[in-house]
Design a protein that fits this description.
Layout: H1 2-14, E1 25-29, E2 34-36, E3 42-47, E4 51-61, E5 71-75, E6 78-82, E7 89-99, E8 104-113, H2 131-156, H3 164-197, H4 201-204, H5 210-214, H6 216-241, H7 247-257, H8 259-264, H9 266-269, H10 275-305, H11 310-339, H12 345-348, H13 350-381, H14 388-414
Parallel strand pairs: 2-8
Antiparallel strand pairs: 1-3, 3-6, 4-7, 5-6, 7-8
Length: 433
């Protein structure tokens, strides 16, 4: 079976997929997110093959609505839209044209006139994060917990060789996490691109995604997809060759590339962000993944399939969880201080209210874990094996609360932190003779 899977993977690499033949945008004037010193006279779109002009081929929007263009001219592979005089501000260009293969190609990019241009994902018309994106982000966090937390539990807590059935279930859980991380990440990118381009899925297949790929979000998505694909390969090889040492590079790669979320989110882009906020955000996410993923391994792998290892695994995980909880608290407190300029932002802003829900869930999870630490751990350490069978339900409850924490975190990641109030200028002093 393993040899057949290895052969199938090799064949998938040998036979490449067929390339699309529709027209692609080669160059634009103004450039993507270019900041101009004055109003441009025209927008120029140059394609790599001939296209046909469609009604409303080029639309220009300011932050308040449609600006309108004077006229649109097609000359060979170049589409030119002549513009009225533009005032200072950010502008969004939405375009579409008929490709030679019969498909309508579309795209979006932004530029600024004496102002900073927004990212394509924040272009005019983009609605921002939706409920679907919240759910997808939550599934992404769960997948990360299964992958990174499962690997961490196996390498840091269960160092000895596992029984065959338990080993198989471990690989199934972490494999689901690895594949879900890749595929859910792609779904998240598609949803964000669909919102930015304002296209239905059928037209999105022929959309120009290059501006989104060049954004902070797109760059992180590409890097994380490649990194998690490599981590998945090491996990797959560890299973095929039965060499647990290959789990180490998979684990380290998973931890390292989880930082892409921190490098592309609020901790990197908003006012007050710095390398310290990025590091704290990554540590916060990594600790949560290790904690929740380890709980899942305890409940699904160790308790039903490894009764002889329950005591050692529970005590070992308790030590790991204590470190994770400490990191969660320190990083979470620091990030809350950075992202909330004023204390009343906790109950007066949407971001603060979601944060309050998350704090409540985290407090419940910590109380649950603290009960284990103060009551269950001493009992088990003294050799009280009678308590072990009853612990599975309690551990399952704690893991459910942890997953609810990840759901609140998913909503929080997509929410916009409150804006810091502008500093009050010093009062002008008058000098009397």
């Amino acid at each position: 079976m393993k040899r057949l899977l290895l052969l199938a993977a090799a064949l998938a690499l040998v036979f490449p997929a067929q390339a699309f033949a529709h027209a692609s945008l080669e160059h634009t004037t103004p450039g993507f997110r270019e900041r101009l010193p004055s109003s441009p006279q025209k927008i120029v779109l140059r394609f790599d093959q001939y296209v046909e002009r469609l009604p409303g081929s080029v639309h220009l929007y300011s932050s308040t609505g449609d600006v309108g263009v004077k006229r649109v001219v097609l000359e060979g592979r170049t589409l030119t839209a002549w513009l009225p005089h533009l005032t200072k501000g950010a502008y969004t260009v939405r375009w579409h044209a008929l490709s030679g293969d019969g498909h309508v190609v579309s795209g979006v990019f932004t530029f600024g006139v004496r102002a900073r241009a927004p990212a394509p994902t924040e272009a005019f018309g983009a609605s921002g994060p939706t409920t679907s994106e919240h759910i997808v982000r939550w599934l992404y966090f769960l997948a990360l917990a299964l992958l990174v937390g499962g690997l961490g539990f196996r390498l840091l807590v269960l160092r000895d060789r596992m029984p065959e059935r338990a080993e198989k279930r471990f690989y199934v859980l972490t494999g689901i996490g690895a594949l879900a991380t890749l595929n859910v990440g792609i779904v998240a990118f598609i949803l964000r691109a669909e919102d930015a381009l304002q296209l239905p899925f059928g037209r999105l297949l022929y959309g120009d995604l290059s501006p989104i790929a060049r954004s902070r979000f797109g760059t992180a998505f590409i890097a994380m997809t490649l990194g998690f694909a490599l981590a998945t390969a090491f996990l797959f090889l560890a299973w095929l060759t039965d060499r647990a040492v290959l789990l180490w590079p998979a684990f380290l790669l998973g931890l390292a590339f989880a930082s892409g979320l921190s490098l592309s989110g609020h901790s990197a882009a908003d006012a007050g962000s710095s390398w310290k906020s990025e590091l704290a955000d990554w540590a916060h996410l990594s600790a949560a993944c290790l904690w929740i993923g380890g709980l899942v391994q305890l409940v699904v792998v160790v308790w039903p399939l490894m009764p002889a290892a329950r005591r050692a695994a529970f005590l070992g995980f308790s030590r790991l969880a204590t470190v994770c909880v400490g990191v969660l608290l320190l990083a979470g407190i620091y990030l809350s201080i950075v992202r909330l300029p004023q204390l009343n932002d906790l109950w007066t802003t949407g971001y603060g209210r979601v944060l309050l829900v998350k704090i409540g869930l985290v407090s419940l999870a910590l109380a649950w874990g603290g009960l284990h630490k103060l009551v269950a751990v001493p009992a088990v350490a003294r050799g009280g094996d009678n308590a072990l069978p009853r612990l599975r339900g309690s551990l399952l409850g704690e893991s459910m609360v942890g997953m609810a924490v990840l759901l609140a975190a998913a909503v929080l990641v997509d929410a916009k932190p409150p804006v810091r109030p502008a500093p009050t200028p010093p009062a002008a002093s008058s000098v009397h003779p």
